[in-house]
Amino acid sequence: MKITFKLYATLQHLLPSAAVNNAIEIEVADDVTLHQIIEQFRVQPKDAHLVLINGTYFDHEARDQTGLLKEGDVVAVWPPVAGG
Fold this sequence. Notes:
The chain is mostly beta strands. It has 1 helix and 5 strands, in the order ββαβββ. It starts with a strand and ends in a 6-residue tail after the last strand.
């Protein structure tokens, strides 16, 4: 199935050069986990602080579940951000 994968902030550079607006469409297996997708793009687990599917947050434990994704979903990943 095809989904859109987005990386933000300090993770953007890990996307291929074909990415547009921090996003790339990718083909994934129906039983893929969020962790597997994130690892495919060389994002370290500690750097995948905020992971969303269509705007819904998934915690670390949920990211190992299969069957979370459907055709056309958007997965977005943000690193931890320091602020003040």
